[in-house]
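Before relying on records like the one below, remember that each one covers exactly one chain. Contacts with other chains, cofactors or solvent are not represented anywhere in the record.
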Amino acid sequence: MKSDIQIAQEAVMEPIVNVVKPYGVEADDIEQYGKYKAKLSDELLKKIESNPDGKLVLVTAINPTPAGEGKTTTSIGLGQAFGKLGKKAMLALREPSLGPCFGIKGGAAGGGYAQVVPMEDLNLHFTGDFHAITSANNLLAALLDNHIQQGNELGIDTRTICWKRCEDMNDRVLRNIVVGLGAKADGVVREDHFVITVASEIMAIFCLATDMKDLKERLGRIIVAYNFEGQPVTAKDLHAVGAMAALLKDAIKPNVIQTLEHTPAIVHGGPFANIAHGCNSIRATKAAMKLADITVTEAGFGADLGAEKFFDIKCRMGGLKPDAVVLVATIRALKYNGGVAKEDLSQENLDALKKGIVNLEKHIENLQKYQVPIVVTLNSFVTDTEAETSFVRSFCEERGCEFALSEVWEKGGDGGIELAKKVLDVLENKQSNFQTLYPDDLSLEDKIERVAREIYGADGVDYTPAAKRELAHLTEIGMGNCPVCMAKTQYSLSDNAKALGRPSGFRITVREVYPSAGAGFVVCVLGSIMTMPGLPKKPAAYGIDVTDDGVITGLF
């Protein structure tokens, strides 16, 4: 059996100019990075503003197993299947982070015969967007510390600094550090921290900004610290906005590549959904909707994270109204949620399936609260049995959901025809009455409570004293109307990674709260989740190499 990277490397790609041409995009409308990658020009984005919007389909999933279960693969395969059916479809996806590539997951360009290519480029440096975001973030950190060193004219209380440096790598020793050690000229000694780039506020701003003007306004609102009077000190106060915007000037242009079957894929931005808001850029999604009749986008991890944030943050801020939701499940993940060990997932086990399917049931109930029609799809594995598949199909249909089997990993677009037809039927015959989970004017604590009770199934919320104080403080400075971005483990509906299935009788703990004023939301850190991940005992990096003739191997 061929690996994902072998399949990708054997693919015959079309020049990117040919891929986008059927969508009304000419060579002068894109800025090429070689033959197979390009950025959409600002001129094109302005030109298509008056085009009607196509339909928007969100792909989300149940809580994953540690290995991941194919949500991106399903998204890509669905896009390819629409192409097989003669539909003008386009994908809007996130860029992978280097952290997981070299950590536990490996590449994130789909899998099997449902991939986007060039796969190695996408998984590594791509067009440099993440480097630009990292540089902009750390420029602000450098300007902040330099301001303090040069006399601290703004009266910054160094005990209140909340701006963190970032790096797009899993590096646990950088979570808590001390800076400014050495001579007087080396800066003021203080505690500092790193987050992974995909959890940074710059990444969130990058993905939520609609244009350069909006980007600069958002950058200016970033709160870096507070002065001795307790007033916020912003990036604008530090005169950082222009230089940061200069670093992001090219990065904010959406990237376009192709699937193995030459469906265009706009891949732009990449916040994690467990510790950030988990969606690709608004610019990319809106561009796809203007260029195609159907846009397929995805939100990270389970629907309790990615989909909730897609609806309550991205759609709220971007004025998006999704037309359908595809909820991805696998027999393997359902059995894992039913208590089966990872090494035993290939064996038929209807009892464990019946026990674990309550996780799928909860996600269906959650999505129904947003009043968008749902199609459940099973991402097929060769080890699935007919009895297991039939049980899941009946379970979904009894709950008013459309159901389809997806075999896109093995068969590409052909394996997604059943799913694509179900989605088309929903788009044509079912009305979406999208609504968010909570209104803007609900208090921050009530918003947290609503997500905890309605989405996670918690009995309530507990706060550390520091989190409680910060919620009151953020309300005081005018952030009470912001949505909340919950940082939580992806493996459970609760904040306890080991509580699988559909936990009940639990409360969640808000450990930390901090502002993302530029992004326009308040981050709530739950349980033991970390915003700078660590590497596992045997990182994926051990298996990655380059041959003597320059071919990358081991990138899944």
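The longest helix spans residues 129-149.
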